[in-house]
């Protein structure tokens, strides 16, 4: 028999726990919004935890610290030469023009650090930077993650092939997700849940107002006063998108936000997480 729990309230509900999801969750939680992250597996990180985490955001401050001469304009020239009008111009502009702002915002948190490493722009085209313009998360000593290490999806070698690897110094996607977990816990506004799968969206009068989720202890209706972010990877893109849902190509509008729910979560050392073990 399935147990149905009383409804819970949050400001923002984020579905998924890869780089996209945790960046969105961190942005909400760092701005004082009570945020719930739902991850269907027993680990946080998704494919992002396997990745190299090279991040292509032209003209950001981590590049500038390394003396890489780059700008949004130069990156836009390269991007436009390669991508053209194959994606919506508005999305291209938003992605390129807010990249530096995003990096600046994230690096205000001491847990979130990036550095430039040479990694070539693949194609010859106007605006190309010879040694590349990718930034990567600064490696993270695993000890800094404490108990959270057990919740981080292991490397692809270990997770998929059982090949043991040194996990003392986390790099690439391991560092990215590890750093986001640290930063989220520190906000005191984030409730991170593994083994909790979004089953469906709650739609009322044409607006997305929450999700129905299946967790280890049963089914819960989670209400979101400010919004639902679907960041569960492109391969599992939703076909049930509704107006007001972020991450939904069909989103047609946005309902005026309600007042944020006061955060009542526990301090960083004892996050209000719901670990899988
Ligand atoms: C080896 C490798 C190296 C890579 N290197 C790079 C690189 O250097 N730079 C780069 O830009 N890209 C790289 N990529 C690609 C990159 O990893 C992906 O594009 C990126 O991780 C996608 O991130 P995401 O946040 O959208 O999804 P994911 O990281 O895949 O996260 C999605 C999460 O959503 C969860 N989920 C799905 N459905 C539900 C549900 N119903 N309820 C709750 N949770 C759900 C999944 O379990 C998963 O944890 C690499 C990929 C690989 C495999």
Question: Any descriptors?
Answer:
alpha/beta, 23% strand, 7-stranded mixed β-sheet, disordered C terminus, 277 residues, 6 helices, 12 strands
Lay out the secondary structure.
Elements: E1 4-15, H1 19-30, E2 35-38, E3 55-56, H2 61-65, H3 72-83, H4 89-107, E4 114-116, E5 134-137, E6 140-141, H5 156-161, E7 169-170, H6 172-187, E8 190-193, E9 197-204, E10 207-215, E11 218-230, E12 245-246
Residues 15-21, 38-41, 46-48, 50-54, 156, 197-198, 231-233, 236 line the site of flavin-adenine dinucleotide.
Poorly predicted runs are 236-244, 246-254, 262-277
Helix fraction bin:
25-40%
Tell me the overall shape. globular
Distance between the termini: 22 Å
Work out the strand percent: 15-25%
- Count of distinct strands: 12
Unique ligands = flavin-adenine dinucleotide
Figure out the total of helices: 6
Order of helices and strands: EHEEHHHEEEHEHEEEEE
State the secondary-structure class.
Answer: alpha/beta
Mean pLDDT: 88
Largest sheet: 7 strands, mixed
Radius of gyration: 19 Å
Account of the 3D structure:
This protein is 25% helix and 23% strand. Strand 10 and strand 11 form a beta hairpin. The chain has 277 residues and is α/β, with parallel strands linked by helices. The protein binds flavin-adenine dinucleotide. The site of flavin-adenine dinucleotide has 26 residues, from helix 1 and strand 9. Flavin-adenine dinucleotide binds next to helix 1 and strand 9.
């Amino acid at each position: 028999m399935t147990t149905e729990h009383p409804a819970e309230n949050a400001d923002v509900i984020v579905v998924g726990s890869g780089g996209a999801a945790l960046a969105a969750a961190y942005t909400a939680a760092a701005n004082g919004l009570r945020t719930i992250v739902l991850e269907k597996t027993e680990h946080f990180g998704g494919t992002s935890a396997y990745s190299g985490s090279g991040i292509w955001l032209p003209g950001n401050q981590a590049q500038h610290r390394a003396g890489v001469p780059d700008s949004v304009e130069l990156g836009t020239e390269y991007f436009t030469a390669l991508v053209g009008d194959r994606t919506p111009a508005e999305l291209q502009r938003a992605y390129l023009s807010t990249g530096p702002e995003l990096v600046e915002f994230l690096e205000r948190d001491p847990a979130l650090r990036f550095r430039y490493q040479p990694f070539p722009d693949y194609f010859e085209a106007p605006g190309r930077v010879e040694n590349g313009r990718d930034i990567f998360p600064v490696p993270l000593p695993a000890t800094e993650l404490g108990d959270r290490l057990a919740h981080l999806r292991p490397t692809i070698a270990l997770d998929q092939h059982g090949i043991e690897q040194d996990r003392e110094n986390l790099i690439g996607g391991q560092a990215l997700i590890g750093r986001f977990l640290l930063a989220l816990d520190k906000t005191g506004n984030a409730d991170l849940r593994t083994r909790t799968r979004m089953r469906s969206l709650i739609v009322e009068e044409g607006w997305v107002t929450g999700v129905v989720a299946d967790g280890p202890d049963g089914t819960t209706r989670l209400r979101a006063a400010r919004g639902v972010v679907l960041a569960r990877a492109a391969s599992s893109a939703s076909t049930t998108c509704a107006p007001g849902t972020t991450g939904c190509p069909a989103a047609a509008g946005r309902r005026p936000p309600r007042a944020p729910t006061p955060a009542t979560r526990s301090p960083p050392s004892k996050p209000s997480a719901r670990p899988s073990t």
